[in-house]
Amino acid sequence: DARVTQTPRHKVTEMGQEVTMRCQPILGHNTVFWYRQTMMQGLELLAYFRNRAPLDDSGMPKDRFSAEMPDATLATLKIQPSEPRDSAVYFCASGATGEQYFGPGTRLTVT
Amino acid sequence: AQSVTQPDIHITVSEGASLELRCNYSYGATPYLFWYVQSPGQGLQLLLKYFSGDTLVQGIKGFEAEFKRSQSSFNLRKPSVHWSDAAEYFCAVGITTNFGNEKLTFGTGTRLTIIP
Predict the structure, then answer these.
(1) Do A98 and B103 lie within an 8 Å CB cutoff?
(2) Which residues pair with A78 in a beta bridge?
(3) Looking at the partner chain, which of A56, A93, A98 has a beta carbon nearest the beta carbon of B51?
(4) What is the tens place of the pLDDT at every residue in B57-107?
(5) Which of A10, A31, A33, A43 to mutate to test the interface with B (most CBs of B within 10 A)?
(6) B30 contacts chain A (CB < 8 A)
(7) Among B82, B58, B63, B65, which Cα is nearest to B24's?
(8) What is the rounded end-to-end Cα distance, in angstroms, of chain A?
């Protein structure tokens, strides 16, 4: 049963600290997405990659967020420095034919 | 710009009763439409999708949805709900980009509560 995996599942950190979230997409999927979910804004697309190349990161605050795919099995989302307003659930999703399959998410709390 | 509207924030249904969740979309081209379900503390799970062809699509867990172009709607239905169907349901429209049909715009979700 192929699944998207994300680590860590929960992260509590202090304001100003660096946060790195990791995602392993489903093997064979060539498109990877990062979303953020909050009560106020709902699901927001932050960035997405195809064949490891960034296609669109217009949803990300550029000054503090960065997303990369070092290889086909790993996508990372980094926040530096973190702020309390970054508290949210961050989802990774992967796909190949228009459908997207979501990971379980990383719940980030910035104090 | 594309958008998805789920007019019902919260719906309560008795177990065994039928269910219909509404979804309206706005998109200039042929839409690719999806329904996802999210249980508490979980990621989103794909229930069903419409790409083309038959406008009535079947999904997992006994769900179906009907695409009505004239009404710009893609409502989700289930004839008899089970307590395990309690969750948040999201409708989404897939957007055609230069790289394919990839980006999704999600509605705000409908929370479904099941009462015994």
Answers:
(1) no
(2) A20, A66
(3) A98
(4) 999 999 999 999 999 999 999 999 999 999 999 999 987 766 665 788 899
(5) A43
(6) no
(7) B65
(8) 36
